[in-house]
Design a protein that fits this description.
The protein is mainly α. It has helices at about 1-10, 10-35, 40-55, 60-75, 80-115, 120-155. The protein folds into two domains: about 1-35, no CATH class; about 40-155, Helix Hairpins. The longest helix is centred in the last third of the chain and has 39 residues, at about 120-155.
Length: about 160
């Protein structure tokens, strides 16, 4: 690989060939991005790619993943009922879902306005972020309401 890179920097013909391959590959990826999923497996693959992208690029998505995992783990340790665990899972899932939608909205807005500032773009991004914030606060309140009584009982029983 290193040899090819060294050769391409000294040989304009090879550099042009490499640029052509990159452009072709980029074009093929762009075409693939607009394909309709041909099967349920392909649909899951696209969805997994979106979640993976968010996890790798969005700090807040990773924070929400950790907090959701922590909430579910605490619920399991405190032996919450199945309904209480379901509520924690749903609220955690909602936060992650809204974070994914926030990322999608931000990407579309950035695609539309580029590097230019536009007040409507700011409003769209701020509102999407606000939706995540509200769901995160609600999730914390739900977790507190479900976990606090069990924690208090546990602490009082050890005294």
């Amino acid at each position: 690989m290193q040899t090819k890179m060294d050769e391409s920097s000294t040989n304009p013909s090879l550099q042009s060939d490499m640029n052509s391959k990159v452009a072709t590959s980029s074009h093929q990826n762009r075409i693939k991005a607009w394909r309709v999923a041909t099967s349920i497996g392909v649909s899951f693959k696209y969805a997994a790619a979106g979640v993976t992208y968010a996890f790798n690029t969005q700090r807040n998505f990773r924070i929400h993943c950790v907090m959701g995992t922590l909430a579910i783990s605490i619920g399991a340790l405190l032996q919450l009922t199945s309904v209480e665990m379901a509520v924690i899972c749903i609220t955690s899932g909602l936060v992650l879902t809204l974070e994914l939608l926030n990322t999608a909205i931000e990407s579309v807005v950035d695609l539309t306005v580029g590097q230019n500032y536009h007040e409507l773009a700011k409003i769209a991004k701020d509102c999407a972020a606000g939706a995540v914030l509200i769901s995160a606060f609600a999730s914390v309140l739900v977790g507190f309401c479900l976990v606090a009584p069990k924690l208090m009982l546990l602490l009082l029983s050890h005294q």
